[in-house]
Amino acid sequence: MFTIFLYLLALGGLVISFAKDPQKTRVALMKGWKAFTNILPDFAVVLALIGIMLTYLSPHTIAALVGKNSGFPGMLASSIVGSVTLIPGFVAFPLAKSLLDRGAGIMQMAVFISTLMMVGVVTAPLENRYFGKKETILRNSLSYIFSFIVAIIIGMVVGA
Amino acid sequence: MNLLNLIKTYRYFLLIILFDLVITIFHPDTGLTIFKYTAGNFAEMLAIIPPIFLLLGLLDVWVPRETIIRYLGEGSGLKGIVLSIVLGAAAAGPLYGAFPVAAVMAKKGTKYSNIIIFLCSWSTLKIPMFLFEMSALGVKFALTRWLVNVPGILAIAYIIDRLIGAEDKAEFYRRQTANP
User: Fold this and answer.
1) Is pLDDT at B35 greater than 90 in this prediction?
2) Burial call A38-50: b when 16+ CB within 10 Å, e when fewer
3) pLDDT at A67
4) Residue B1's pLDDT band (boundaries 50, 70, 90)?
5) A143 or A85, which is more confident
């Protein structure tokens, strides 16, 4: 749905731009293409890494790793799995829901969801390429720590 | 020579593919699953990335630097912060889509802390995801997470902005401007 919207926006923009100034549009297309091919080698690495990650950490495996343990060790395990995995929300949310239904703790699920979205270990090479090492390490580690705070608050609000 | 360059550019990717091939030899099922997922990832990326780069190219050419500076640059204040959050939250798609967008924002003069706010918002505040999260995990869960995230993101951006030195920032901006 969103992809269609994005395409409509891009194509609409392209048509308007071309009507206004074909020369400028040509430059825009070239810039877009250059930016894409510049980053493609790093992109390819990340996508290949995700391929390996998805194979070894299937939703089934994740379910076995996350939510089994309780307390802080359980949160730690969930946060590590959340950090290294990269699965879309439409897979992650129902997964977390089914684990909750099977008795997993709310804080363990919250830290899993939060690290899943904010911490990206497999996308780190790409982030590093754009933002540099310092930013990549800082943003990911701060997000990791913050995920525990989020989980504790969610535990207090939802668990109560 | 040209092929050699290509191999050099894609050496890490080729190494991973080599690793996948070795796995396929010893564990055909696992190896094929890896290739299946990798191909699927490329298909997903190729579906979402072309319009993003097309829009970025158009943005680069048509939107004047002054406009971006006014709304998101130094001195954009609260307006810039709110706009960065809204831009990130309105997005969809994986975080890797945010990086090239952030790069063009930087090139056009967006303030460093606003770039980080945008990045963090994209990662965790996305509205389409929020709606989905609400239906799967409940309003209380999703809403609490979203509301706690907003100040959290601001704090993270502030800390990163403080800890990254002026030199590293200058290098970051220089790199984005050097790109075509």
Assistant:
1) yes
2) ebbbbbbbbbbbb
3) 66
4) low
5) A143
Interface contact A121, partner B, CB < 8 A: no
- Residue ranges per domain, chain B? 1-60, 63-180
pLDDT digits (tens, 9 = 90+) for B68-79: 899 999 989 999
Count interface pairs A-B at CB distance under 8 A. Answer: 220
To the nearest 10°, report the CA torsion of A85, A88, A94, A97.
50
Measured in degrees and rounded to the nearest 5, phi and psi for residue A122 equal -70, -25
B159·A138 Cβ contact <8 A: yes
Identify all chain A residues contacting B149, using CB atoms and an 8 Å cutoff: 150
Q: Do A6 and B51 touch (CB under 8 A)?
A: yes
The DSSP secondary structure of A95-158, one letter per residue, reads HHHHHHHTT--HHHHHHHHHHHHH--STTHHHHHHHH-HHHHHHHHHHHHHHHHHHHHHHHHHH
Separation of CA A141 from chain center:
15
Judging contacts by C-beta atoms under 8 Å, the chain B residues touching residue A94 are 136
Cβ distance A38 to B180 less than 8 Å, yes or no, reads yes
Reported confidence tier of residue B180, pLDDT bands at 50, 70, 90: low
Alpha-carbon gap, residue A89 to B43, rounded angstroms: 18
Closest by alpha carbon to B95, among A7, A133, A46? Answer: A46
Average pLDDT over residues B170-177: 89
Q: Tokens 């879309």 appear where?
A: A88
User: CB–CB of B180 and A31 under 8 A?
Assistant: yes
Asked if the C-beta of A145 comes within 8 angstroms of chain B's C-beta atoms, the answer is no
Of B9, B29, B37, which Cα lies nearest the Cα of A48? B37
Q: Are B145 and A110 a contacting pair at CB < 8 A?
A: yes
- pLDDT: is B74 or B48 the higher one? B74
